Amino acid sequence: SCLLKPANKSVIIQFKMMSLGGSASTSLNKTVTAKYMSIPQPKDKVRVLYVWIDGTGENVRCKNRTVDFIPKDPSQLPTWNYDGSSTYQAEGSNSDVYLHPVRIYKDPFLLGDNKIVLCDTYKYNKKPTESNNRAACLETMNKVKQLEPWFGIEQEYTLLDIDRHPFGWPKNGFPGPQGPYYCGVGVDKVYGRDIVESHYTACLYAGVQICGTNAEVMPAQWEFQVGPGAGIKAADDLWMARYLLHRVAEDYGVIVTFDPKPMEGDWNGAGAHTNFSTKTCGWLPMEGDWNGAGAHTNFSTKAMREDGGITEIEKAIDKLSRHHVRHIKAYDPKQGKDNERRLTGRHETSSIHDFSAGVANRGTSIRIPRGVAEEKKGYLEDRRPSSNCDPYSVCEVLVRTCCLEN
Ligand code: ADP
Ligand code: MN
Ligand code: MN
Ligand code: MN
Ligand code: MN
Question: Taking every annotated instance into account, which residue ranges of this chain make up the domain GS beta-grasp (predicted)?
């Protein structure tokens, strides 16, 4: 048969649930919605959507509240709480988790003075929750302020149809092999550009420092980039951009996954592909291998950006080479388990087991972009972080290794 081999069992379970009717909200009459959304909002009321990271460390949650002033700074917004026992963050008997507003964005869905506020989360004892890596990251960034660290993150992701099959892929087979899709154009090359453009627009309006987008190597896979942002800004922007992407895709009835290897490449292993035929599949791939998804993290300090900064970049790479395992543990939410599926040494990745670096080489852990090597200053690209990484953990460990040596 031509069934895809799902990346893991939870995908199968979700597949079954989704086929019972996961697209309910997309099928609602949007004209009726427009009628209500055109009702004028009272001038003295502002809607604020609190967004936070849940206990998985990779999914985001949100809830609304009304305030009667226009918030300019997160400190003006009330701390709030939610039921942490419903987000894998607390026991039912002691379930209140605190929300601390940390960065305000304009709401691209409601417009006007309405806001979306990114929050971090604290337990009953005022300590950060286990999935709040922002608190520690901010502390580390404050220690190295004078070095002016900048980050730019390339977020790759995959669009899935409501049945969790990659969006736009033939239902009974596969698209042709990788090659024509990366930065492609045309209905047979790229799937879902409406979502990408809508998301781009929403990010710019919101105040997310999105700096670009492109179609990726695997069809239905895309990338956007944020940055370069100083300190914690790029990581905040990345989380808000992820939230906005889920919301935009919700409007289109499409699912966004940040899984680092949504289509595992071994479904045609052991010669099984010889059983495929164009009669049963419609489309016959030459190779059953599909790229995974990463979150390449570009990093620089003031010294790296100055003339001759390449020597600083080389020093940082030398330090990184001595802490490979520590970085791998920080580069996905499962201490390296997720990245094991992606960092195979194939599909423009380096092996999870080895550290390597090179100029313009996309099969290494660290890449020095060609332009940086030529100008002898700029930044380095760490290609190891997984698409579902927590950018707070990634940025923090980069600073620890390269700037603090602990
Ligand atoms: P590629 O696909 O070639 O690896 P992209 O254009 O997708 O590169 O992404 C480049 C990233 O590098 C962007 O996120 C950008 O913000 C970031 N960047 C550019 N200059 C710097 C810098 N000096 N320090 C840190 N990040 C940077
Ligand atoms: Mn309630
Ligand atoms: Mn890129
Ligand atoms: Mn990419
Ligand atoms: Mn890159």
Answer: 44-126
Strands 297-300 and 380-382: antiparallel
Query: What is the reported pTM?
Result: 0.91
Point out the ligand nearest to the CA of residue 293. 4
Whole-number Å distance, alpha carbon 247 to ligand 1 midpoint, is: 25
Dihedral sign from CA coordinates of 31, 32, 36, 39? positive
Distance CA 261, CA 338 (A): 8
Q: What are phi and psi of 367, to 5 degrees?
A: -115, 135
Q: How far apart are CA 336 and CA 389, in angstroms?
A: 10
Query: Phi-psi region for residue 115, left (φ > 0), alpha (ψ -120 to 50) or beta?
Result: beta
Q: Look at residue 14 in the predicted model and tell me its pLDDT.
A: 52
268 pLDDT above the threshold of 50: no
Tell which wins on pLDDT, 341 or 23.
341
Q: Which pLDDT value is given to residue 154?
A: 98
Ligand 1 pocket test: pick from 148, 155, 312, 379 the residue with the most ligand atoms within 8 Å of its Cβ: 379
Which of 154, 224, 299, 307 for a ligand 1 pocket mutation test, highest count of atoms within 8 Å of Cβ? 154
Which residues have a Cβ under 8 Å from the Cβ of 179 and sit 6 or more positions away? Answer: none
Residue 22 pLDDT: 67
ipTM for the whole predicted complex goes beyond 0.95: yes
Q: Are 159 and 222 in contact (CB under 8 A)?
A: yes
Give pLDDT tens digits for 274-292. 333 333 444 444 446 899 9
Round to whole Å and give the CA distance between 322 and 95: 41
* Residue 403: closest CA among 324, 312, 307, 296: 312
The candidate with the shortest Cα–Cα distance to 37, out of 101, 107, 109, is: 109
Pocket of ligand 1 (CB under 6 A): 150-154, 211-212, 225, 227-228, 296, 298-300, 305, 378-379, 381
